[in-house]
Amino acid sequence: MGLPTAAQGEITYLSFLLGLLDVEKQERKRRSEEIRMKFSRLLHRKTLEDFDFSFQPSIDIRQIKELSTLVFVVRRENVILLGPSGVGKTHLADGLSMQAIRTGLTVY
């Protein structure tokens, strides 16, 4: 009861090759993301999905969702997060950085 193989005639050679190429593509993406994470030197791996917006109701969720599209990167704009200690600025910055890394961008 092993995996189906092209040599045994269980799947076509083309299907086998396409599956193999898909596995290779996924592995390259994973390794590339891992390398970009190392280069980023982020202290925390927090995501925007993990941010508790109910904890800080003054944050505009729509604005954060807009920032998560990373359009500001394409437009070469800066994002400045202002506020007192403990409101989630670092979490949001890390979340935007993680989003950028997931989409293939390099973060420093």
Q: Which outline best applies?
A: elongated
Helix tally equals 4
Q: Based on helices, strands and strand pairing, what is the structural class? A: mainly alpha
Low-confidence stretches are none
Tally of strands:
0
Q: What multimeric state do the chains show?
A: single chain
Rounded radius of gyration (Å): 20 Å
Give the tally of structural domains: 2
Beta-strand portion reads under 5%
Largest sheet: none
Element string (H = helix, E = strand): HHHH
Give average pLDDT, whole number.
91
Helix content: 40-55%
N- to C-terminal distance: 48 Å
Describe this structure in words.
- This protein is mainly alpha-helical and 108 residues long.
- It is built from four helices and no strands.
Fold blueprint:
Layout: H1 13-40, H2 61-68, H3 71-74, H4 89-102
Helix pairs in contact: 1-4
The gist of it:
The chain has 108 residues and is mainly α. Helices cover 50% and strands 0% of the residues.
Key terms:
4 helices, elongated, 2 domains, 108 residues
